[in-house]
From TrEMBL:
Keyword set, alphabetical order: Metal-binding, Zinc, Zinc-finger
Pfam families: zf-C2H2, zf-C2H2_4
Protein name (database record): C2H2-type domain-containing protein
Domain C2H2-type: 19-47, 50-79
Alphabetical list of InterPro entries matching this protein: Znf_C2H2_sf (IPR036236), Znf_C2H2_type (IPR013087)
Highest taxon above the source species: Eukaryota
GO terms assigned for molecular function: zinc ion binding
Length: 81
């Protein structure tokens, strides 16, 4: 019986998974780096400029609003009028 180890080793070496930014698609090697990027680049303003048209909640960024729409109202990025 032969066991091939080379494939296993490759699998271990490729354990790094890039985390893409949901807004600009840049990739980061750790959740902390991605979070910092989101806060620095996409959430630089502390004003709550994004308002939910359904319940009136306000959010710091479009990204948070999208997350809220999806979670609270089950809406996925589509436009409704
Ligand atoms: Zn980004
Ligand atoms: Zn809402």
């Amino acid at each position: 019986m032969r066991v091939k180890v080379d494939k296993l080793e490759v699998g271990i070496m490729r354990s790094f998974e890039p985390l893409p930014c949901p807004i600009c698609q840049r990739t980061y090697s750790s959740p902390g780096n991605l979070k910092q990027h989101l806060e620095n680049i996409h959430m630089s303003s502390n004003e709550l400029n994004f308002e939910c048209r359904i319940c009136g909640n306000k959010f710091k960024s479009k990204w948070y609003l999208h997350k809220h729409l999806h979670r609270a109202h089950h809406i996925r990025g589509r436009k409704e009028t």
